[in-house]
Design brief:
- The protein is of the alpha+beta class.
- It has three domains: about 160 residues, no CATH class; about 130 residues, no CATH class; about 160 residues.
- The protein contains 19 helices and eleven strands.
- Strands 4, 5, 6, 7, 8, 9, 10 and 11 form an eight-stranded antiparallel sheet that branches.
- It is flat.
- The relative contact order is 0.09.
Length: about 525
């Protein structure tokens, strides 16, 4: 006897059969071939997709990205009738961007820069579409393909700048509203208490979500480029200004109702409700200027085949099997290269110690507020205090790494001078030369510390994390193992001691800082 089949199963089967019957034979084969290449790319870059998916789901700043795949699917489906008229053709020039995107992924992976490796992973999928389906299909889907870039979580690098912008907006509004206030970096002191423009208050989550939404609206609701530019400008400026007003509102309410009430009010207002109000206000202003119907989206480049240069490009076809074989070969090469390079580790001494420095004496390390920089995965760590005859004191922290990889990155978020889950807060940037990155830190609203962070690898001494990552990437690409050293020279602000002067005096005493670091870690 035949097993019973439910009516629901029949309906699903009939729907799928009808859908497949409506897909031209050429498209069925081409989509299957694209699926093969995509699966191979996803297998190679699986770690990056796992990290991205974790951010989309668990970090509120990136929750909006969960909608991006559905938006891309809707955009492609909206032009299905136009796409059915096109014939997919494999196109060999697309092997260049595919190889380039995979190389970008390799660079990001080896350097430990997630944004770069994730960008390479996404662009590889886009390039595979051009390779397997051809330039005509790709240009017809130009915007959906470009919108896939929003799958990459970005924005963390904007937080310090947005904190400072928000703080300046808040102090201006606070003084305008008649409330006496003093600003120090991202801290604002008022009669009701001390307020911090923390990372969560920077407004970065709303800014990047608004950029993604604004890009979609400018495409689907406007045809005039002037109107698109005007809307996108407003979409970027409005959340920044609105976030400053929200932060000021919290301080203003706290003056009469108290900090506890103001914080409770802020928690109710702050969130996606606040974002929804900002979006509604933006759309209400621009609604009357919409000049494109979102239901009429279709081929993004309907007349591109009329151009001779495109006809010449489109003629550079390749057999589908050869295209897939070439793509898989690139994927294998990049995968093997990544595995070999990722296993490199430099040889290190068994132990290291802080040296004697002329004019300075090592003394007991006794900070006013406990401070010990984070250096997860470091093979060696040193922390000590020096004092000179003038009474100036500096704290020196050194961490040595045999390699830079996940779990042991000197420049990763949460590493270095600003210690997570402690009383220390970032206050403001400190001006330095290019060999160090300066930060002012604040604890308990009164204890200030200046910290200058440097990275040393090979002959490079820099205060820029990107400089360190590029150097590490170059060494690994050429299979050259180099150790990395993290150096933080800091000083507390106290009576009779200016941290910047104390650190400058210490640096003059050690002379060539790069060579001094190399001697400590046994490289000279």
């Amino acid at each position: 006897m035949q097993p019973d089949v439910s009516a629901g199963q029949l309906r699903s089967s009939e729907w799928l059969t009808r859908w497949l019957d409506g897909v031209p034979d050429a498209w069925r084969v081409a989509l299957l071939q694209l699926g093969v290449v995509w699966v191979a790319i996803l297998a190679l870059t699986a770690g990056d997709w796992w990290v991205m998916a974790d951010k989309w789901w668990n970090i509120s700043t990136y929750n909006h990205i969960l909608f991006v795949p559905f938006i891309v699917g809707w955009l492609v489906y909206s032009r299905a009738s136009d796409l059915a008229k096109l014939v997919p053709q494999a196109w060999w020039p697309a092997l260049v961007p595919l190889g380039g995107s995979l190389f970008i992924w390799l660079i990001g992976s080896l350097a430990g820069v997630n944004t770069v490796s994730q960008l390479g992973a996404v662009v590889a999928l886009q390039s595979a579409v051009v390779l397997v389906l051809g330039p005509r299909v790709a240009t017809a889907n130009l915007f959906p393909l470009a919108y896939m870039l929003f799958l990459v979580p970005f924005g963390d690098e904007l937080v310090p700048a947005l904190q400072m912008i928000t703080a300046k907006l808040v102090i201006a509004l606070t003084e305008w509203s008649g409330i006496p206030a003093i600003i120090d970096g991202v801290f604002i002191d008022t009669p009701a208490g001390l307020f911090e423009v923390a990372e969560a208050c920077s407004g970065v989550k709303f800014l990047i979500a608004m950029i993604a939404l604004g890009t979609l609206v400018t495409y689907s609701c406007f045809s005039s480029w002037k109107r698109r530019i005007a809307f996108m400008t407003a979409a970027i400026a409005l959340p920044i200004l609105a976030n400053g007003v929200r932060a000021w509102g919290t301080i203003y309410i706290a003056q009469s109702q108290g900090i506890a009430f103001a914080e409770g009010f802020d928690h109710v207002v702050y969130g996606w409700v606040f974002f929804a109000v900002v979006v509604a206000a933006l759309l209400a202003v621009f609604w009357r200027y919409f000049d494109r119907d979102p239901d009429d989206l279709g081929d993004d480049t309907p007349t591109i085949e009329d151009y001779r240069w495109f006809q010449w490009l489109q003629a550079r076809t390749i057999a589908p099997k050869a295209a897939i074989a070439s793509a898989l070969a690139l994927i294998v090469v990049m995968g093997v290269w990544n595995v070999v390079a990722s296993q490199l580790e430099a040889e290190l001494p068994d132990s290291i110690e802080l040296p004697q420095i002329e004019g300075w004496t090592q003394v007991d390390y006794a900070p006013v507020v406990p401070w010990a920089p984070t250096a997860s995965g470091a093979d060696h760590r040193l922390l000590g205090r020096y004092r000179n005859a003038a009474g100036q004191e500096v704290d020196v922290f050194i961490a040595l790494y045999s390699a830079q990889e996940d779990g042991k990155e000197a420049s990763a978020d949460g590493e270095g001078a600003l210690i997570p889950d402690t009383p220390w807060r970032w206050l403001a940037p400190a001006q330095t030369d290019g060999s160090a990155k300066g930060d002012y830190l604040l604890a308990h609203g009164s204890v200030k510390r200046r910290a200058e962070t440097s990275y040393r690898t090979g002959n490079l001494l820099t205060g820029r994390a990107i400089g360190l990552k590029l150097s590490n990437m170059r060494d690994r690409l050429f299979l050259h193992a180099q150790p990395t050293t993290l150096l933080i020279i800091s000083a507390e602000e106290r009576d009779g001691q200016v941290p910047a002067d104390s650190i400058a005096a210490f640096r003059r005493s050690i002379d060539n800082e790069g060579e001094w670091i190399d001697r400590i870690v046994g490289l000279r």
